[in-house]
From TrEMBL:
InterPro entries: GHMP_kinase_C_sf, Mev_decarb, Mev_diP_decarb, MVD-like_N, Mvd1_C, Ribosomal_Su5_D2-typ_SF, Ribsml_uS5_D2-typ_fold_subgr. It comes from Candidatus Limosilactobacillus merdigallinarum. Belongs to the diphosphomevalonate decarboxylase family. The keyword Transmembrane does not apply. This is diphosphomevalonate decarboxylase. The gene is mvaD. Its EC number is 4.1.1.33.
Length: 322
């Protein structure tokens, strides 16, 4: 009746930006990500026949029932699959180096799915765990697995799941997060992607971009070609952010520091240093590079940004039980 799971967050190299089914969280496109080592969530789920509703505590703080919609979707799916109606107490703790906008729903819902399924007595494959995590948040689908992971758009609920491409990385791809801002985001990824799907005239082109990027990204991974991986990821992120600029009303997740980081990385690239940027639904910038260049890149980034706000992330593992 009780289980604890740890899941790590992930960063998309080919982004998921749009749903075609908001209830089941079926995406418009495939996507591809790297699971990260230093950022994770531990979640304990304990079913208790005495409870009349689920109770959620995040970092020891009780979450009001009206803020539990996404969690309820995962828990109700567990009850549905298990054919039982018992509620649970859920304790979730986020581990991020400094609280800086990297706490992700990806690790949270992957840990919830794994702990909840096990505590209920459901014995799910990792594929089905990823389908379950998907109900909480799209990016959580991929955090069930370690290393480089692909989420298949699929045809329906059954066929939209994640799968590892390379669970243990056998080459030196790494990431530095530049934590430029700590304030809460103004436009959620959920709202931002919906507005993009509904109003950006470029959305049909984005779907073609992703098809192409998935193929070339997988080729680049197979040949351990970090400059190609970085370049594709960088172009893909710019095209994703072009959807926000071209939405109605248009908006952006970038701020001044985001542009400062982009210019700095452009300069490093012009000097022949292989590093590339990617951004998600917030102003933080993540830099991709080969681990052999870590020292040099940290040093150069540290001349412009506070070194305490640079966090190195290597590839992390898939979900596991504690
Ligand atoms: C930019 O997974 O947070 O990070 O499915 O609505 O919960 P919901 O969205 P979420 O969106 C992630 C968007 C992204 C790109 C990505 O992770 O692929």
């Amino acid at each position: 009746m009780k289980a604890t799971a740890r899941a790590h967050t992930n960063i998309a190299l080919v982004k998921y930006w749009g749903k075609r089914d908001a209830q089941l969280i079926l995406p418009q496109t495939d996507s591809l990500s790297l699971t990260l080592d230093p950022f994770y969530t531990d979640t304990t789920v304990e079913f208790d026949p005495e409870l009349t509703q689920d109770q959620l505590f995040i970092d020891e703080k009780a979450v009001p029932a009206d803020k539990m919609g996404k969690v309820e979707r995962v828990m109700d799916t567990i009850r549905d699959w298990k054919k039982q109606s018992i509620f649970a107490r859920i304790h979730s703790t986020n581990h991020v180096p400094i609280s800086a906008g990297l706490a992700s729903s990806a690790s949270a819902f992957a840990a919830l799915a794994a702990a909840g399924a096990k505590a209920s007595g459901l014995n799910l494959s990792r594929r089905d765990l990823s389908r379950l995590a998907r109900r909480g948040s799209g990016s959580a689908t991929r955090s069930i697995f370690g290393g480089l992971v692909e989420w298949h758009r699929g045809q329906d609920d059954q066929s939209s799941y994640a799968e590892p491409i390379m669970e243990k990385l056998d080459f030196g791809l790494e990431m530095i997060a530049i934590l430029v801002d700590t304030s809460a985001k103004k436009v959620s990824s959920r709202g931002g992607m919906q507005l993009s799907v509904e109003t950006s005239p470029f959305y049909p082109a984005w779907k073609e971009v992703v098809k192409h990027d998935m193929t070339s990204m997988k080729q680049a991974i197979a040949s351990h070609d970090i400059p190609a991986i970085g370049h594709i990821a960088q172009e893909n992120t710019l095209r994703m952010h072009a959807l926000t600029l071209s939405a109605d009303p248009g908006f952006t997740y970038f701020d001044g520091d985001t542009l400062r980081a982009i210019h700095l990385i452009d300069d490093l690239q012009a000097e022949g240093i292989n590093c590339y940027y990617t951004m998600d639904a917030g102003p933080n910038v993540k830099v991709l590079y080969d681990r052999h260049d870590r020292k040099l890149i940290l040093q150069r980034l540290g001349q412009v940004f506070d070194p305490a706000r640079l966090v190195v992330a290597t590839a992390g593992p898939g979900v596991y039980y504690l």
